[in-house]
Design goal:
Protein name: V-type proton ATPase subunit C
Organism: Sander lucioperca
GO molecular function: proton-transporting ATPase activity, rotational mechanism
Family: Belongs to the V-ATPase C subunit family.
Largest sheet: 4 strands, antiparallel
Strand order of the largest sheet: 2-7-1-8
Keywords: Acetylation, Hydrogen ion transport, Ion transport, Transport
Structural class: alpha+beta
Length: about 375
């Protein structure tokens, strides 16, 4: 995925001139970035006090909604498990890939009516994101419990013969059942010791199952010889499994595994669909917050009447530093006292809230939403 710089600068005689100047400086001469106009409609400005307060609120909302977007994307990757290469194709906004959505951004008038105040629009987005976040927690918890229970059962049916469930290995005919004098026991014997001839009081022994470490034997002996047999087994480093043949219990375990597996498959489709829809909703909301922030910050910085051009730059990775220098040169007249202050610079007493400050309005949109590379 990729990183975008969403910037704005005041209109010259026209906003088109502002755009043309940027294009000349960043693309026509030196291919520093791919640029697109970023269309923000005529929003209601409100009072200066409201704008100042809203600027802080939108910064917090931006962070929150971005976290929701990332959580939904990451959970999509977790749910798709073996198909992680398919994650990206499911992370769409309005049915298109994220780069296309951002570069062709159009304000959604139906979701966020521009006749409403900026505060109302931000509250609509805030409620929407909180709802998605809460729903995700509930759905993830239910699915994770189901998945965890299934994995526990699967673990029981795999692994070492010393600990794994034996229900899918043994059969009723492997045991002498309901005998007053005889008993069948199950013994795990290391591969190198496949001989039970040293055992005393054995009436019969049979290999039931073998893995790369050991074999599982059924041994039938007199009940009165159990203690002596266990003692001899320990001496020979054989392990007697504590196992009672119970058909009902084994059947219940198998049915539980089938039920959990079926439930997981049933929930998988609707959950992926929900994640796709709500990822799209959250991402769209996030980009609308970026648009709101650009609008509010541009009005606060450049004043009224509203006259600025919002522009979306996709920096050429190798030339990011050069692009910053070119933008600084282009817009240094906007704020001569600021020049460039970078959040990486440690200036005592100056809290930039980890947000770079430049003479032009600037927000980063980072579309690297996942912890792994797909």
């Amino acid at each position: 995925m990729t990183e975008f710089w969403l910037i704005s600068a005041p209109g010259e005689k026209t906003c088109q001139q502002t755009w043309d100047k940027l294009m000349v400086a960043t693309t026509r001469a030196n291919n520093l970035s791919d640029n697109n106009k970023f269309n923000i409609p005529d929003l209601k400005v409100g009072t200066l006090d409201v704008l100042v307060g809203l600027s802080d609120e939108l910064a917090k909302l931006d962070t929150f909604v971005e976290s929701v977007v990332k959580k939904v994307a990451q959970y999509m990757a977790d749910v798709l498990e073996d198909s992680r290469d398919k994650v990206q194709e499911n992370l769409l906004a309005n049915g298109v890939d994220l780069v296309t959505y951002i570069t062709r951004f159009q304000w959604d008038m139906a979701k966020y009516p521009i006749k409403q105040s900026l505060k109302n629009i931000s509250e609509i987005i805030s409620k929407q994101a909180a709802q998605i976040d809460n729903d995700l927690k509930a759905r993830a918890s239910a699915y994770n419990n189901l998945k965890g229970n299934l994995q526990n059962l699967e673990r029981k049916n795999a692994g070492s013969l010393l600990t794994r469930s034996l229900a899918d290995i043994v059969k009723k005919e492997d045991f002498v059942l309901d005998s007053e004098y005889l008993i069948t026991m199950l013994v795990v014997v290391p591969n190198r010791s496949f001989s039970l001839t040293l055992m005393c009081h054995l009436l019969s022994s049979r290999l039931l199952f073998e893995d790369h470490d050991s074999g599982l034997f059924s041994v039938t002996l007199f009940r009165k010889a159990i203690d002596d047999f266990k003692h001899k087994a320990r001496e020979n480093k054989f392990t007697v499994r504590d196992f009672q043949y119970n058909e009902e219990e084994m059947k219940a375990d198998k049915e539980e595994m089938t039920r959990l597996s079926t439930d997981k498959k049933k929930q998988f489709g609707p959950l992926v669909r929900w994640l796709k829809v709500n990822f799209s909703e959250a991402f769209i909301a996030w980009i609308h917050i970026k648009a709101l922030r650009v609008f509010v910050e541009s009005v606060l910085r450049y004043g009224l009447p509203v006259n600025f051009q919002a522009m979306l730059l996709q920096p050429n990775k190798k030339n990011m530093k050069k692009l910053r220098e070119v933008l600084s040169e282009l817009y240094k007249h906007l704020d001569s006292s600021a020049a460039i202050i970078d959040a990486t610079m440690d200036i005592p007493g100056l809290n930039l809230s980890q947000q770079e400050y430049y003479p032009y309005v600037y927000y980063k949109i980072d579309c690297n939403l996942l912890d792994f590379k797909v």
